[in-house]
Fold this sequence. Notes:
The protein is globular. It has a single domain (about 15-305), classed as 3-Layer(aba) Sandwich (Rossmann fold), CATH 3.40.50. The chain has helices at about 50-55, 55-60, 75-80, 85-105, 120-135, 145-150, 165-180, 180-185, 190-195, 200-210, 240, 270-320; strands at about 15-20, 25-30, 65-70, 115-120, 150-155, 215-225, 225-230, 230-235, 250-255. A 7-stranded mixed β-sheet has the order 1-3-2-4-5-6-9, with helices on both faces. A two-stranded antiparallel ribbon has the order 7-8. The chain is built from 12 helices and 9 strands.
Amino acid sequence: MTEPGPPHIKQFGLTQIYAPRDTPTVDIVFVHGLNGHPYNTWTSKSTGCFWPVDLLPDILAVQRPRILTYGYNANVTAFTDGVSRDTIVSHAETLASSLAANRYLRNCTNRPIIFICHSLGGLVVKRALIFSRSLSNEKTEHLRSVYVSTFGILFLGTPHNGSDIAKWGLLLNNICSAVLPKKFMETSPQLIKTLRTNNETLQHINSLFVDIMGRFHIYFFHETRSTDVHGTREVIVDEHSAAPYMEGVERMGIEADHSHMCKFDDENAAGYEAVAEAILRYSRQAPVVILDRWAEEKSVRTQEKKAKAREIYDARIEDPANQSMPNLNRAGRNSHLLPAPDASVTLRDYEIEEPPV
């Protein structure tokens, strides 16, 4: 059972947890993982440090960040039951729609976005960006703004590889063992079976994301300490899965286990400086890049609308229903008003005598 956080932080949906006095230049969004919480996932159990608010604003002061945390029903069935495809897609669409609405109401649709994700929360963010990118209809293109404005993503312990179905099942089993009570796992044999068979959705998300990941600045963080799983020590998401070698992608290990790699006791905690530096660097680089992307996006939208208008015009011209209309180019504008020629009238009646020389 997930413990409740401070009352001002909503368990479900977006909560703005920090805003600067002046107009922000970047939106930073935290997304927790399986069995996580929008507050507890990022809070140290030993010091109570909620680092998105207690540490990060000081580092990013000049960049004037607006910081949000996103909460959703992240119980184990959200990723493992028979309708996992619908559940994950629903979470992803809600994230994209909520973020687009939040930013539209504040007139900051074009503001850069940086995501920080833990564990399977990274898959929700991936799916949200895939969904946002797919929208091109002018009636839903406002949701596409999340895709256009996203500059960078920090993945903490998110599995990115897993072509082997059996390995996916083992991976999910390990994650559940790390975040759920031992008694729950021991009394839920059906869950183990489900983990091994219903994970095609997670594979599908990762395969689709490969096509668009080159657009974003990405940093992979992997855990370096093992977790106690049923009396044995195991690395939940190993380096190969959490931080695969890819061109143009940063990667680093954090000296912590899977559950604690996203919690920092203070500014001296292992991994904090690397995470904070990446967020700071992305925040500095993002405004210019996203400004250019929006200019390109608007240009593409304008061209598409012109092309669509041209198609409609051409279709109307070629429509057989319009062929009965008089061709004004072939005859004079008022030619249809002239009397029909009289057959009884001959050319002789119109002969004119030549004048004498």
